[in-house]
């Protein structure tokens, strides 16, 4: 029996607040998850719409026995954003995930989660964050299984790895959802809400490549580590993160749990995942030290 | 990385109309072998005065590069193996023999080698065309740029007491070529301007049509969804 | 627009110039650079390009040349050490200290910690790759590790930079004034490795040359990176290097430069605003660009800064020839860019 835990990452997209609330209620009631992240990571312009719903979301999740983590913004530039980060860091009784180093600095001395959008590539940085109070570290998407294993061997705290969903690859001050529609970020009309799974970006040869989520650029392919999680767990990874998409996330969580518990073989789970995510293309290249968009067949894994 | 993408693309790089082109026409009957001693000499100078070029190319020892001055009737094959570097002049080269090819007017290639123009800028303006393994070309450009080569200075140093007059002569020749180039540029522009204008008008028409087609396609999709 | 404060004494900013080779270092110093920044010839720096950068011997000679002419040399060791193999990065920091570099420019928290503990005498600058974009982040590096200067990410407006400067003194700021423009927050972008397996953070390269391929077709040139088409050019169109975020892509049914056009940052026209914002140092991007570029850009900015400091109007300098695609932008320094 594997002890690896499952986390649901924060919803990175601009979903309608009611949709978001219903989604979290469903996760609370139906999904086999240890931890659920809540909070706006990508764009501070979205926060005011989301905020009124957060207390009831947290309440419902907590009542359902899920641990709740509040995730911070990834790129903090303005005073308003910094003040929001300070407020977040001051929140009592709730664990905070730092996705900008300033939030980790604000949390220093108290337990916090070091998020996947911090640059934690090696043991030295890991040790510094542990010393600051990080009680869990979610690693950047780029790392290979070997790099991950090197870090789990050195870690005093739990190591988390991103395992499902479109990968957050870059963050910018510029909004590409707005730019694609000839708008600027200031007058964006919240067009990012038109694409609840991100706006597909293709090459000029119409090959799917990336996805745009406002100021964030993501992978077009969905990360899928179903074939890799048991190996990674054996190499010391204590937790896997599933990024919310509009698919049946309770179903996705069920598949990961089943594979980790060795109740389902990876190929069978892969087939089930493809059915749960119609139209999705999958990738796991980073874990195998390859370009991130590639999918390395599980049978080739040692 | 750097798994030499030997390109099979056909080479159709039109040389710009220039004084070098005339020189090229003049050189056409010359057998490349007759020019080989010049390049042997040049390589000897490089090995003596700029050993760091080959040192910077050490990772690319087995990646020969073809340098193709588009206005001259021959190409130069650079084999950067530090044990046995070679600079060979040939009438032509099979792309399969080399890791990469750089096409460009000789004047540009010399200016590039001397660090007098910015390689990226040359490429942005499309006056240089690279085929094959871009990495080895970037390495070569950086290695040469880093050496601080001054071809005229180097050759005149080799010439000993004859160096000073050579330097003067070469300087004058380059000035002359530059002036001739400007004149030719004017001539060339006036010759092809009408054709360019026509092409521009044509491409404007095409993009207008493309726009219309896209709009129609979009409207059709929206209509279907409604 | 900047508030029209006219402080009696503006501080003269340092001009920090790139050098990918010893020849470029000499060009930069001779053209009037106050500082030159360089990297070792390996993956410890974010311009780990083929044939570029300095051996230990070349760095020693370069530092001697710069110092003899009153210029400083900064060594960029600004990639993120590989898990389990920090030796190459530690050695780079040790050598920068041993060769008496005027500062090391670092990005990784663990490496900064190593440098601060092992070489307390070595001046530390925070690389743009650390993406410290607010006063709290900057204070973290200053208070914890004694960072003296931070290179600000290219995501901030001039007003935001002025506000940061007012709150982080005595920590100095350095901003980019010219060159290739990252449109993403630097050090927080994995697009390159998604396409090619190699990234700025891990390998010191973005859109690596070894993964680039140009194909000539009757319609023009197609540029590819890691097998993905990044752009297509008609025969008369200026072509560019296929840097991923400067490519043309299809989104929302239309092809466009979705992230950024092939363009160069050029702040000559807003130099007075940047100086008034209290920036300590102006940085020129382009260690990979060669001597001709270095000399031209350094001269232009030397003249620009000297004119502003002397109260003269800005000189008109045309840098079109050396900008990507011949296009220029003031980038994120003006809010409309976002």
Fill in the keyword field for this structure:
heterotrimer, A: alpha/beta, globular, B: 226 residues, Nonspecific Lipid-transfer Protein, Chain A, five-stranded mixed beta sheet
Can you walk me through this structure?
The complex is a heterotrimer of chains A (302), B (226) and C (338). Helix content of chain A is 33%, strand content 22%. By secondary structure, chain A is an alpha/beta fold. Chain A has a single domain (5-165, 222-277), classed as Phosphoenolpyruvate-binding domains (TIM Barrel), CATH 3.20.20. In chain A, α1 runs parallel beside α3 (54-63), α4 packs parallel to α5 (101-107) and α10 packs antiparallel against α11 (266-276). Helix content of chain B is 58%, strand content 11%. Chain B is globular, with a radius of gyration of 22 Å. Residues 1-12, 183-198 and 221-226 of chain B have low confidence and may be disordered. Chain C folds into 2 domains: 14-181 and 263-337, Alpha-Beta Barrel (TIM Barrel); 191-256, no CATH class. In chain C, the strands form 3 sheets. Chain C has an 8-stranded parallel β-barrel with strand order 1-2-3-4-5-6-7-15, surrounded by 6 helices. In chain C, strands 9-10-11 form a 3-stranded antiparallel β-sheet, with no helix packed on it. In chain C, strands 12-13 form a two-stranded antiparallel ribbon. Chains A and C meet through α4, α5, α6, α7 and β7 of A and α4, α5, β8, α7 and β11 of C.
Question: What is the compact description of this entry?
Answer:
The complex is a heterotrimer of chains A (302), B (226) and C (338). Helix content of chain A is 33%, strand content 22%. Chain A has 302 residues and is α/β, with parallel strands linked by helices.
Q: What is the architecture of chain A at the second tier of CATH?
A: Alpha-Beta Barrel
Provide the CATH top-level class of the largest domain in chain C. Answer: Alpha Beta
Total DSSP E strands of chain A: 12
CATH class of chain A: Alpha Beta
Low-confidence stretches of chain A: none
What is the overall silhouette of chain C?
Answer: globular
Mean pLDDT of chain C, as a whole number?
A: 92
Give the name of the CATH superfamily of chain A: Phosphoenolpyruvate-binding domains
Report the end-to-end length of chain C measured between terminal Cα atoms: 16 Å
CATH architecture of the largest domain in chain C: Alpha-Beta Barrel
SSE series of chain C: EHEHEHEHEHEHEEHHEEEEEEHEHE
Tell me which protein chains meet in the greatest interface and how many residues each side has: A-C, 72 and 66 residues
């Amino acid at each position: 029996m594997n002890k690896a835990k499952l986390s649901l990452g924060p919803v990175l997209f601009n979903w309608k607040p009611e949709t978001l609330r219903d989604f979290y209620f469903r996760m609370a009631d139906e999904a086999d998850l240890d931890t659920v992240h809540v909070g706006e990571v990508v764009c501070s312009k979205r926060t005011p719409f989301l905020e009124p719903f957060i207390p009831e979301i947290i309440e419902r999740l907590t009542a359902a026995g899920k641990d709740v983590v509040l995730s911070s913004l990834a790129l903090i530039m303005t005073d308003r954003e910094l003040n929001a980060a300070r407020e977040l860091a001051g929140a009592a009784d709730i664990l905070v995930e730092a996705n900008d180093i300033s939030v980790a600095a604000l949390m220093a001395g108290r337990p916090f989660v070091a998020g996947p959008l911090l640059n934690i590539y090696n043991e030295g940085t890991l040790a510094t964050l542990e010393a600051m109070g990080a009680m869990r570290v979610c690693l950047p998407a780029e790392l290979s299984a070997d790099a991950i294993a090197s870090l789990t061997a050195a870690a005093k705290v739990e190591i988390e790895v991103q395992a499902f969903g479109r990968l957050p690859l870059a963050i910018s001050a510029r909004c590409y959802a707005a730019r694609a529609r000839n708008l600027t970020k200031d007058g964006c009309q919240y067009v990012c809400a038109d694409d609840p799974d991100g706006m597909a970006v293709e090459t000029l040869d119409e090959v799917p490549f990336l996805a745009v989520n406002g100021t964030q650029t993501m992978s077009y392919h969905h990360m899928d580590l179903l074939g890799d999680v048991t190996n990674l767990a054996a190499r010391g990874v204590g937790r896997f993160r599933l990024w919310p998409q509009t698919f049946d996330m309770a179903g996705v969580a069920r598949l990961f749990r089943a594979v980790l518990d060795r109740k389902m073989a990876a190929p069978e789970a892969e087939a089930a995942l493809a059915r749960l995510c119609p139209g999705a293309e999958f990738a796991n290249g980073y874990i195998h030290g390859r370009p991130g968009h590639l999918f390395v067949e599980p049978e080739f894994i040692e | 990385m750097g798994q030499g993408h030997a390109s099979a693309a056909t080479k159709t790089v039109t040389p710009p109309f220039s004084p070098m082109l005339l020189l090229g026409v003049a050189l056409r009957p010359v057998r490349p072998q007759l020019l080989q001693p010049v390049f042997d000499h040049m390589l000897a100078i490089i090995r003596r005065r700029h050993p760091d070029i080959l040192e910077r190319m050490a990772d690319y020892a087995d990646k020969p590069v073809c340098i193709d001055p588009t206005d001259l009737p021959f190409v130069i094959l650079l084999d950067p193996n530090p044990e046995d570097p070679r600079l060979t002049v040939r009438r032509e080269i099979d792309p399969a023999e080399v890791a990469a090819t750089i096409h460009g007017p000789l004047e540009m290639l010399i200016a590039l080698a001397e660090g007098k123009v910015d390689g990226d800028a040359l490429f942005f303006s499309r006056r240089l065309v690279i085929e094959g393994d871009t990495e080895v070309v970037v390495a070569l450009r950086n290695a040469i740029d880093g050496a601080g080569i001054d071809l005229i200075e180097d050759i005149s140093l080799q010439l000993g007491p004859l160096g000073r007059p050579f330097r003067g002569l070469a300087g004058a020749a380059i000035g002359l070529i530059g002036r001739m180039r400007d004149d030719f540029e004017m001539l060339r522009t006036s010759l092809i301007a009408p054709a360019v204008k026509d092409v521009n008008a044509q491409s404007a028409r095409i993009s207008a049509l493309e726009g219309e087609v896209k709009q129609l396609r979009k409207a059709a999709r929206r209509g279907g969804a409604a | 627009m900047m508030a029209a404060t006219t402080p009696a004494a503006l501080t003269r900013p340092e001009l920090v110039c790139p050098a990918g080779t010893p020849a470029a270092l000499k060009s930069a110093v001779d053209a009037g650079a106050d500082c030159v920044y360089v990297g070792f010839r390996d993956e410890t720096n974010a311009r780990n390009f083929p044939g570029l950068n300095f051996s230990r011997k070349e760095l020693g000679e370069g530092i001697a040349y710069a110092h003899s002419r009153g210029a400083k040399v900064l060594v960029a060791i600004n990639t993120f050490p590989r898990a389990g193999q920090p030796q190459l990065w530690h050695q780079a920091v040790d050598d920068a200290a041993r060769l008496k570099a005027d500062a090391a420019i670092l990005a990784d928290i663990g490496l900064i910690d190593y440098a601060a503990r092992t070489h307390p005498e070595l001046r530390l600058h925070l690389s743009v790759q650390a993406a410290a974009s607010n006063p709290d982040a900057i204070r973290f590096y200053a208070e914890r590790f004694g960072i003296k200067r931070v290179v600000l990410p290219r995501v901030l407006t001039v007003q935001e930079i002025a506000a940061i400067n007012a709150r982080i003194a005595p920590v100095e700021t350095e901003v980019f004034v010219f060159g290739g423009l990252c449109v993403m927050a630097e050090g927080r972008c994995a697009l390159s490795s998604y396409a090619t397996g190699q990234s700025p953070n891990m390998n010191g390269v973005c859109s690596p040359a070894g993964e680039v391929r140009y194909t000539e077709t009757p319609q023009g040139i197609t540029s590819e990176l890691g097998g993905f088409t990044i752009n297509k050019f008609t025969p008369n169109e200026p072509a560019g290097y296929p840097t991923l975020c400067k490519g043309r892509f299809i989104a929302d049914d239309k092809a466009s430069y979705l992230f950024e056009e092939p363009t160069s940052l050029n702040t000559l026209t807003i130099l007075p605003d940047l100086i008034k914002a209290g920036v300590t140092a102006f940085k020129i991007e382009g260690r990979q660009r060669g001597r001709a570029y270095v000399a031209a850009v350094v001269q232009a900015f030397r003249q620009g800064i000297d004119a502003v400091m002397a109260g003269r109007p800005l000189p008109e300098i045309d840098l079109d020839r050396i900008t990507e695609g011949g296009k220029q932008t003031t980038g994120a320094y003006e809010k409309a860019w976002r």
